[in-house]
Design brief:
Chain lengths: 269, 269
């Protein structure tokens, strides 16, 4: 059996490109359709109800593209919308919370785990609930870091000010003796080195993107949905956005590590 | 003649509340309907085409509320959408650019004016074009400050980090010998004291909100649209938003200086 349909991935904007990068690495033969909701980005400060509505619209767009699996590559949408939407669609839908949670629970030795994310992600307690479900002895320390996304989008990845802001936000974690932290937002891997520096070398950073790609591979294998095409060229990633494509194409390279060939605007969401 | 219909004001989010505050001060007898597009905020990094579409939807909502004048209380929308939309509607529509520009041109002595705003506002050159139309000898120095809005929304109005970020962005203006600067975004008045400190006491800060309120009063007078009602209570401001109202009501107090009685969510935009 071979299923040549693409994998659908959506995010509020371009943060989900960190997931695209890892999916390309783990599943180089698969086609990908990416949708970034750049006209309505960010989702982080918005309400659950609104994010569910946006997520359903994004999924309907991906389904028009005949996708075989949908990855919700946005931590905020995964936190507050996944449970409400996955039960209504036949296509398998996976979020970015569970893979990061499994990895963090596997890695931690002292069972003290930090979570950083957007306001809505942290408020949802989605990470906390799933970690405690795996091991009720795990202690979770969550912090919302609303300025991290604007900093990344401004391209201030390693400036002195960025270091200070990261240090400021993470201060309350410093004396909590955590040995693992989940980067609970797809933008945060771009601040990895600064976060590592602030928390010290002993704290393990869990970047969900990589775990998500492993999880996607597993689902496709289990459900017999893998393609048997030859390794695809980068052109088999189709990028769609809801705002003008120019800025996305330009900034996207920072996340992906290679130039985006073509980004198209869709107005039906 | 007395026209008791409300004034309609819209913004991408809550920044426009700085305009509401000044309109209440200048026109205490008028009713106001405010719409904050909080589900799609911010407009600043988005494209002209998308902002025009959002603005038309917002105007159609305000027209359903039978408004007699519309104030586009968002610098980004005023910069890129006003010209395209005002010609299509019968209702008078005013933006926040022209009032700030007139005031700055009146105040400046050395004809060297700074402009700060979002990426899209600065890219549009709307301020520059209008200033030069008034006086071709005026020299304009524009800087986009994308982190100012997230800083204000995070409530970091006077922290050390905020001072550093403001100093960083405004550094290129320091040796330009400007005597006037237009705060080209409705969020920026909340950073007034830090901006003043960085630029020094000699630079005059133009806060468009106040000028907009004077301009609105003038239009209503000229067109015979003033009400003759008695001074209204604060309850005659109706607040509508496109995302959940709780956060807006809570944060809005910072902008308005008084508690918002009731904020309602509308889903038709």
């Amino acid at each position: 059996m071979s299923d040549t349909r693409p994998i659908g991935i959506f995010d509020s904007g371009m943060g989900g490109l960190t997931v695209v990068k890892e999916v390309i690495r783990s599943l180089p033969n698969e086609k990908i359709v990416y949708f970034g909701d750049t006209a309505r980005v960010p989702y982080g400060p918005k309400s659950k109800e609104t994010i569910i509505r946006f997520s359903i619209e994004n999924i309907l767009f991906l389904l028009k593209n005949n996708v075989k699996l949908i990855i919700v590559a946005c931590n905020t949408a995964s936190s507050v919308a996944l449970a409400a939407i996955e039960k209504n669609f036949k296509v398998p839908i996976m979020g970015v919370i569970e893979p990061g949670v499994s990895e963090a629970a596997r890695i931690t030795k002292n069972k003290r785990i930090g979570i950083i994310g957007t306001k809505t992600t942290v408020k949802s307690s989605a990470y906390e609930q799933q970690l405690i479900k795996i091991d009720s002895k795990i202690k979770v320390f969550s912090i919302a870091c609303p300025l991290f996304v604007p900093l990344v989008e401004e391209g201030w990845l390693k400036t002195k000010i960025t270091q200070q802001i990261v240090a400021d936000y993470l201060m309350p974690l410093k004396n909590k003796n955590i040995d693992t932290i989940i980067l609970g937002c797809t933008h945060y891997p771009l601040l990895k080195s600064v976060i590592q520096e602030v928390l010290g070398r002993k704290v393990h950073l869990v970047d969900s993107a990589r775990q998500v790609a492993y999880g996607a591979k597993q689902i496709l294998e289990e459900q017999g949905l893998l393609t048997n095409r030859e390794k695809t060229a980068r052109q088999s990633v189709c990028f769609y956005v809801s705002d003008e494509p120019d800025n996305f194409a330009e900034q996207g390279e920072k996340f992906l590590g290679f130039a985006l060939n073509k980004v198209r605007k869709v107005s039906n969401v």
